[in-house]
Amino acid sequence: MDKLPIGVQSFEIMRTSGFVYVDKTRWIHQLATEGMYYFLARPRRFGKSLLVSTLKCLFEAKRELFEGLWIAAPGRWEWQAHPVVVIDFNGITLDTPEKLQWGLQIALQETAANYGIDLQTPLLLAQFKELILGLQRKTGQPVVVLIDECDKPLIEHLGKGEAGLVTGQANRDVLRSFYGVLKETSVAAALRFVLLTGVSRFSRVSVFSALNNLNDISMHEDYAVLLGYTDAELQTYFAAYIEGLAAKLDCTPAAARLMLARQYNGYRFSENPLRVYNPFSVLAAFDHKKLSDYWFATGTPTFLVNLLRERQYAFPELEGLQVSSAVFGTFELERLAPEALLFQTGYLTIADVVDNEYTLDYPNLEVKTAFTEALLLATEGFAAPASSHVLRLSRYLQAGDMDAFFASMQAIFASIPYDIETKRDEAYFHTIFYLAMAASGGQAQSSVLTSRGRIDMVMTFPDRVYILEFKCNQSAAAALAQIRAQGYAEKYRASGKKVILVGINFSTEQRNVDSWQVTEV
């Protein structure tokens, strides 16, 4: 088998050292032949750096690296070498605007030295212009500019208080002027292709005001699967690894694919319904022969969690969140929209689109369980030792052990100190209950609409469905009566699964679940 390219971001190394390369050159060809100025946003660890590396090798006409790929077919590519300028913000110090400028100058000087050009001007913007014009004159070919993680000088300082905001704003001013060089008349005439990648779609006014001719393809239907793995690609390129995973999990390859899809598939970046897998997590799962939270573990979203808490966001409402398309282009340092941040960083994705209204949801089980656990751990007063009870919740429901389930749930609520000032109402209890269930790995859905009302929570398993209704300072019997009166079970009768009704009452005096009633339809 070809090796798994875990952490490999160099196209040349991937193609010369026996790593699996999922052929994306059909879409890369479309990019390179149909346009000139592009911006692409994708979550971290999604293949942006590999895309930049592939484009670099393509425009440098390293034809031997592309043998056997779609673009290598006769007549598809000109194989004319172009000078390429690559600026990777992963390798530039971003602590201050002065260090940012210094790092950019070093990057420009290194590229100039590689092409035997001696930059004469000491100023950053003039150096950038001098480099591009000098490369065009020396080679006789228009220049390619590839900028990876172009927004890192800004997002690196999010969540770091007022000082971080000031640094981010100063870095933004540097970037705005720097990127603007690419639109200057003499420079534009010397360019062949420009691509900027990043995580966030900062508005054009804030960062790209001087480079307002960028084609933002972040949500373009034609490039929905440019990064990430489709289900078909997974089966084509990783069949042997799927078989290895299936053997370790003691199941069939088909069952292993279903588990992989539930754990890592689901990212949707446009109205195109195609979804892709997180490549980093899939590769790690094949390597470890185990399904785990690999992507989430590479970066803790502390700032994002704190922002949601500050805005007093209703965590159960993150599922099925409905927004307009305006949300996707409103990322600003001074006015951070949680919905835009959640989507752009990959914690929510597009679940459905109707007219101009987008429904967002967690892309897969990995993100849902790990993110809701992070939200739960950040809940005021929640004790980390209670996490052991959280892990058991879904297991108890799957087995139908309701006594053990409620004993663990009561232990979770009891772990929260009495002196915490948070308002203990039904919404509070509902939030903790939901986060605990979602973090346990169960398929928890909050506020599920039916034709006759809204179910507080639904838990779905392969052979059974739990319908839960919450009351506060009333009775479990009243909650169960509401489920029956509203006909909540009707939606699930044709599923072929057991339908179990659960009425739960919370007591503000006890600050816990004080009663429950369970019955099977």
Textual characterization of the structure:
- This protein is an alpha/beta fold.
- Helices cover 41% and strands 16% of the residues.
- The chain contains 20 helices and 13 strands.
- It has three domains: 213 residues, Rossmann fold (3-Layer(aba) Sandwich); 67 residues, no CATH class; 143 residues, Trna Endonuclease, Chain: A, domain 1, CATH 3.40.1350.
- The protein is elongated and about 80 Å long.
- The protein starts with 10 loop residues before the first helix and ends with a strand.
- A hairpin with a 3-residue loop joins strand 10 and strand 11.
Coarse morphology: elongated
Largest sheet: 5 strands, parallel
- How far do the termini sit from each other? 51 Å
Low-confidence stretches: none
| Class of secondary structure makeup | alpha/beta
Radius of gyration: 26 Å
What do the pLDDT scores average to?
91
CATH architecture of the largest domain: 3-Layer(aba) Sandwich
Summarize the SSE layout with pairings.
Layout: H1 11-16, H2 25-34, E1 37-41, H3 48-59, E2 84-88, H4 97-114, H5 124-139, E3 143-148, H6 152-155, H7 161-180, H8 185-188, E4 191-198, E5 215-216, H9 231-237, H10 239-249, H11 253-264, H12 279-288, H13 294-297, H14 302-310, E6 321-324, H15 338-344, E7 349-354, E8 357-361, H16 365-377, H17 387-399, H18 402-414, H19 426-439, E9 443-450, E10 453-460, E11 464-472, H20 476-485, E12 498-507, E13 512-520
Parallel strand pairs: 1-4, 1-5, 2-3, 3-4, 11-12
Antiparallel strand pairs: 6-8, 7-8, 9-10, 10-11, 12-13
Helix pairs in contact: 4-5, 10-11, 16-19, 17-18
